[in-house]
C-alpha cells in the first residue's frame, strides 16, 4: 500500500498547479491518496466519478485526509474554493483547474 500525495501549489496570483508525488505511480486498490495545498482555502471535488471508497461524487475532499483508492479508472477532479457556501472551480482556458487520479489502469 502506498500513500500518494497530490500537491496543489497556488501562486500569489491565484494560479494553481497540480502535481502528484511521486509523479508517476500506478495506483491500485489499497493505495491511499491525500491532497495538500499551499493555499489552505483549496477545495477538491470529483464531479463525475470518484476513485475512492470513502469520498462520494460531489463531496469536498479535506486537505491532509487519506482517501482509499478503490474504483478502477481515470477520475477527474476540480480544484477551487468555497464562495458563499458553494464550490467554485478555478477554471482556466475554458477548462477546469484540477487533475486526474488514475487507479489500477
What is the C-alpha radius of gyration, as a whole number of Å? Answer: 13 Å
Structural class: mainly beta
Total count of domains: 1
Q: What is the string of SSEs from the N terminus onward?
A: EEEEEEEEE
CATH topology-level fold name? Immunoglobulin-like
Proportion in helices: under 10%
Tally of strands: 9
Largest sheet: 5 strands, antiparallel
Strand content: over 45%
DSSP helical segment count: 0
Report how far apart the termini are: 16 Å
Task: Give the CATH level 1 class.
Answer: Mainly Beta
Notes on the protein architecture:
With 105 residues, this protein is an all-beta fold. The protein has a single domain, classed as Immunoglobulin-like (Sandwich), CATH 2.60.40. Helices cover 0% and strands 47% of the residues. The protein is built from no helices and nine strands. The strands form two sheets. Strands 4, 5, 7, 8 and 9 form a five-stranded antiparallel β-sheet that branches. Strands 2-1-3-6 form a four-stranded mixed β-sheet, with no helix packed on it. Strand 1 and strand 2 form a beta hairpin. The mean pLDDT is 83.
Amino acid at each position: 500500500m502506498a500513500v500518494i500525495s497530490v500537491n496543489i501549489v497556488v501562486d500569489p496570483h491565484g494560479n494553481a498547479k497540480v502535481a502528484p508525488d511521486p509523479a508517476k505511480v500506478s495506483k491500485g486498490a489499497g493505495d491511499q491518496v491525500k491532497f495538500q495545498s499551499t493555499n489552505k482555502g483549496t477545495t477538491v471535488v470529483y464531479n463525475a466519478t470518484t476513485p475512492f471508497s470513502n469520498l462520494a461524487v460531489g463531496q469536498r475532499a479535506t486537505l491532509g485526509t487519506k482517501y482509499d483508492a478503490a474504483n478502477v479508472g481515470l477520475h477527474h477532479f476540480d480544484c477551487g474554493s468555497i464562495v458563499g457556501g458553494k464550490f467554485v472551480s478555478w477554471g482556466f482556458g475554458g477548462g477546469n483547474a484540477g487533475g486526474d487520479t488514475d487507479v489500477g489502469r
